[in-house]
Design brief:
Blueprint: E1 2-6, H1 11-20, E2 25-30, H2 33-40, E3 45-48, E4 62-65, H3 78-88
């Protein structure tokens, strides 16, 4: 399957990519192609948010959105919780 993973370099995303990449074609959507390549090498296709408008969404069988705000060093408040839920509910592909 062709799988697009937004947030694929994060804590959960990087583990998911590692577990899926041997059997599937993975595209990782992130802020920086160089960082994606540093994490995964050539084993995945890298795509930035700026490239998203040129991405052909029809080629993906599955889209997984793992984007979120880092809460390292922050308290888990209602504001942070609501902001995280808001991020998770936004569509990433047109």
């Amino acid at each position: 399957m062709n799988i697009l993973i937004a947030g694929g370099t994060g804590f959960i995303g990087s583990e998911l990519v590692d577990s899926l990449r041997s059997d599937h074609q993975i595209t990782v959507l992130g802020r920086d192609n160089n960082h994606i390549q540093d994490v995964f090498g050539k084993r995945v296709q890298a795509c930035t948010w700026q490239d998203l408008e040129h991405l052909d969404a029809s080629r993906y069988d599955v889209v997984i959105n793992l984007c979120g705000q880092s809460i390292a060093g922050l308290r888990w408040t209602e504001h942070i919780k609501n902001k995280s839920l808001s991020l998770a509910s936004k569509p990433i592909l047109p």
